[in-house]
Every structure is written in C-alpha cells, then in structure tokens.
Amino acid sequence: MSEFNHTPRLVLLPAVDVAGGKAVRLTKGEAGTETNYGDPVDAAAEWADQGADWIHLVDLDAAFGRGSNAGILKKVIRQVRGVNVELSGGIRDDASLENALEIGAKRINLGTAALENPEWAASVIAQYGEAIAIGLDVRGTTLAARGWTKDGGDLWQVMDRLEEAGAARYVVTDVTKDGTLQGPNLELLRQVMERTHRPVVASGGVSNLDDIAALRELVPLGLEGSIVGKALYAGAFTLAEALDVAGY
C-alpha cells in the first residue's frame, strides 16, 4: 500500500449533467434514460462542500440540440465560486464558447465541434490553449457526435489531427460504459495515452472505489483525472471516500 500512497494524485471531477433544468444521469448517453436527481445548483454545492476542486458541468439539452440551460449553468458556476468548472454541451461556435468563458467556466470541453468543424477547433485551440479540452466520446474506436447520436469518424485519425493542432487535453469517454456502473475502459485509456503526451481525463463507468484506485495507477502514464457521476449520485461511495482513494 505504501507504494500506492506515492502514486501522484488523480483529479476527480464530480459530474452535474443538466436536462430540463434538473440534475440527471443518463445510461450510455441515451436520451430518454434520464434519472432525475433534483436541483443542479444543490448538487454542485454538495460536491463543492465535500471537497471537490473541479466540477464537470454538462448542458445535455444543448448537446442534443433541443434547448439550453444557460441560466442554470450560470447559477451553478456562481454557487461554487472557488471551484473550477469544466463546461460541456453544445459549444460549437465563437458565441457559445465566449459565453461559456464569460459565465466563469475555467475549461470548455469541445465534443461535436472538434469532429465536425476541425478548422474552427484548431483555431480555438490555438487561441485559448489550456482552456480547451477535447471530448473524445468513443464506441469501440468510432467517435460519437451530436449528443452521441451520430458517428464522428475514426478515433485515431481524429486524434492525429488534434495532436497536430496542439490540443491541450483530452476527455475520453467509453459511451458503452457511461452511466452503467460497469467499470472504466482502462485499455482504451492506455491506448489513447500511448498516442499523446497531453493529459487525459477519464469518463464513464466508475462504480466503486476500486475503479478509482485502478484509474489512479494510470496517472504515471498520463491520466490526469476522472469524471465521476452515477456512482456518486447512487450513493456507491461518498465524494470524501473517493477523494481519499484518489490521493487528496
């Protein structure tokens, strides 16, 4: 165990996914699988109170192209002032990107836009650097776009392009694991980290504290953090317990 204690810290990002003004969790990212967990502002405040230094905030309605929760996102960010917020969902042009930064997001997670509009993605990577993370949402080695409803190309080809553009960070989700509590796809994460020197954040599948320990062991290979969602909301463990295993 002493060797594990010397493993660098794994950054944990509790997720707050917003749909229809509520905090929800999906299964495999599919619309219609929402489980409602109440007020997103309360959820974010709870994670902040329990010691989170990052929150992963997602506008699912914007991601699916069916609306916006902009007002609520702003309230969440205001509520957790002092905690870093990574914002995701529907950010596909200059206006939505600038608005996300204006309301206080520390980092923007680009998904569909990085796949469908590579020239724009390259220009904002050049302009904003560390403030831009690229979301790689994967089924097998095929990327998923538009709220995971459309194919977005081959993972490795797209990564080669993003590496060339100078992407600062990748958020990697195995769509088939997300919201299933079946454990993270460690092999996929390893394969991604072999192809980049940039930090990688894992997303999807964390079900217990052993999963967090397994992810922490990948930190020396380039894994920076992990987004944690359904397991926290379902009470599989507390954030304090997770932070302890993650090395906080």
UniProtKB/TrEMBL annotation:
Its EC number(s): 5.3.1.16
| Pathway terms, separated by semicolons | Amino-acid biosynthesis; L-histidine biosynthesis; L-histidine from 5-phospho-alpha-D-ribose 1-diphosphate: step 4/9
Reaction it catalyzes: 1-(5-phospho-beta-D-ribosyl)-5-[(5-phospho-beta-D-ribosylamino)methylideneamino]imidazole-4-carboxamide = 5-[(5-phospho-1-deoxy-D-ribulos-1-ylimino)methylamino]-1-(5-phospho-beta-D-ribosyl)imidazole-4-carboxamide
Query: Where is this protein found?
Result: Cytoplasm
Q: Which GO terms describe its biological process?
A: L-histidine biosynthetic process; L-tryptophan biosynthetic process
* Root EC class: isomerase
Q: Keywords for this entry?
A: Amino-acid biosynthesis, Cytoplasm, Histidine biosynthesis, Isomerase
Any single GO molecular-function term of the entry would be:
1-(5-phosphoribosyl)-5-[(5-phosphoribosylamino)methylideneamino]imidazole-4-carboxamide isomerase activity
State the name under which the record lists this protein. Answer: 1-(5-phosphoribosyl)-5-[(5-phosphoribosylamino)methylideneamino] imidazole-4-carboxamide isomerase
**Organism field:** Agromyces mediolanus (Corynebacterium mediolanum)
Q: Upper lineage ranks?
A: Bacteria, Bacillati, Actinomycetota, Actinomycetes, Micrococcales
Q: What is the primary gene name for this protein? A: hisA
